[in-house]
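Bumping with the actual sequence this time:
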Amino acid sequence: MKSKVFLILIGLFLCSFETHKYYVSTSLFEYKEKMNTIQVTVRVFEDDFINALNTRYQKDLDLDSDLNEPENKQLISDYLLVNLGVVAENQKLKFNFLGSEEKNDTTALYIEFDIFNSPKSIKISNSLFIELFDDQQNVIHFKTDIQRKSFLLNKDSQSVTIDL
């Protein structure tokens, strides 16, 4: 009898620990004024990223897919074009997707935006995975030689304007 009660209590205890999935990306935007660029590193969970690409483009990528293959790089670039942007002086900046790197369960995406004329402010938009997860949060870290700021974006607030 004691062993049954013990097993039931252990079962209830273990069931109380529910795994909680967090939907988050982090992006570091580094404004290199002397180089006229904004260098960006976006870190995402690999499974969420593969899910987003498969959903948007009706593909069948898996965790073993090489994201640096030309066809996959184009898919990633297309996805980023829609979901990640920088606007300066009312013009959307063009970007160059440099590549990606997988490490453990995350994927790092490397992007560079060309920027000219030293704008007074920029607007960063990030809607990565918003179409998939209502509770998606996208953390933005913005860094220059003299300042560092962080912002939290989500489905209700997908962009931020930063004074330079």
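The tokens above came from a reply further down the thread. The chain has one domain: 20-163.
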